[in-house]
Amino acid sequence: MATSAGSTHASTSTDTSMNGNDCSSSSTSSSSIVEPATRSLFSVDDSSSPTSALPSTDSDAESDVGSDYSTASSEYIAPLSGHAPDPSIDGSSVDGGGHSSGANGGGIRPESEAELGPDAKKDALRIKSEANALFSASKYRPSLDLYTASLNKNPFDPIVWSNRAAVRLKLEEYGLAIADSTRAIELDARAVKAYFRRAIANLAIMKPKAALVDLKKVISLDPHNVSAKAQLDATQKLLRRLQFEAAISAKDEVLTSTKILEQLAHGALPIEASYAGPRLPNEEEGKPLRPTNEFVDELIEWFRKGETIPKRLAWQIVLGAYEKLKEEKSLVKVTIPQGETMNVIGDTHGQFYDFYHLLTLTGRPSETHSLLFNGDFVDRGSWSTEIVLVLFAYKWLYPTKVFLNRGNHETADMNKVYGFEGETKKKYSEMTYKLFEEVFTALPLATLVSASSPTNDTSSDTSKNPILCQNKKRYFVVHGGLFSRDDVTLANIAAIDRISLKQPGHEGLMCEMLWTDPQDSAGRGPSKRGVGIGFGPDVTRRWCELNQVTAVMRSHEVRQGGYSVEHDGLCITVFSAPNYVDQVGNLAAFATIDETGSIKYTTFKEQPHPDIKPMAYAGQMAMM
Are residue 580 and residue 546 in the same domain, yes or no? Predict the structure, then answer.
């Protein structure tokens, strides 16, 4: 599963599903999670007892954090007023992925503990031990399957439910982590780790009030737990900070960009003569500023050396991009000219050295080469400012060739807890962070990428022809996915007043575009993340047919091979951060679309980087 650091090879494949083989035809269409010293609260349990023991005083909080902080309940509420399905059979009932463990097929479980025989309990414990070993080896998806297989044998073991919640946290399935933890607590009211994991999951979707309920319960069960007390203290500080910032924001009517423009106009923060890094042309001549290719090349090399740039220069880059972003609609429409290609790039998450390698594979943007970055440039990785400053410099230089969609991590809630705010304040200043926060609101929400030439598909099976618009392919590129209703049109998306809305909130079109995920089952379901929804293949097909879209291209989720083609070819996921947060072991990928709408995928491995861990600037935040 893991890939070796430093590999430079890249592989390219052609996806036949985008050549008419899998599409139906259509004539229309600062921190809040504490890093503990040991791993007891978050390490999985291997006890054969169905009752979890209290953790030792030293405890672990492997974690992540993220959006909404209103409810004080620890219950997982399924969106759309629906009821969450049994979270142990989400997506499909597994048997260990073909593993020799031999779990129940079909997800059929005994309804009472009295139905369990000794063999079933023994098998369940054996499977759990295998799952624990996979978890310890960072093989999270296979371990998830085996925990589910164990629960299919014995669904009355709270330890397995709690252990599976730990895997859910690793996979960023926070809504399902809450559901699994809740089931463990129902089976064992003293399941300390389950309370703690549910607290961490609620923090991950920015529900600190709900997290407080469980953290206080942990301390009541284990009064001497140092890490739980530290986590409670950090969460209380987060709540106070959120309340303070909300009060200040209501009073502050002057935009940060306005304040900075005034400072720059009065010559504030001049660049020191001793500074040896990149400089914008014309800075000393008083002429209009505009970057050049040479400037961006120097900027990239400067960052590769581990250097930062003066605040004045950073502000100029961000403001230059801001002017271009404000000119774009919430849905940007791009046609790939004859003889040109566009690269679509998924999450990069502050992994600058992998980002640099990515640019060597795609090639730099130019007047004949377009790049579309599909959100989540920042957070988690510890070089987020480097990536976003390079992207903003390119947007300023090539406004009609470089396109930047907003991701769920280009939002204030996420940046507070996943590292970008802390990194920006450390490397630059609080005002610089506030400027980024403002400019992120101007990022478009989606891009419609259209071919300029008719498709060259020659499939004789008309039932599998792609969905076309005027005999040409086009792709809806969005960070998260589709919607809680079927009637959303491209015109509706273009009309979203994203800059006035500022943040995506927790419902509505903007939230769904940044947060939703595809699911295997038909229809819509509760989000495994706890924010947004899951949308099935039928939902994707109806939406593509309504809007004459060949496929939805999104990011937002790790794919072990770098990309995936799902929903009969109508939903494509591209993820561009290899060995995500230095532990997942995944390949990364980007897509190349040509003038006919044909797609090729290129995969690549992670690169060596300086010895700075992910989330290094997230204060007391901890890696899960």
Answer: yes
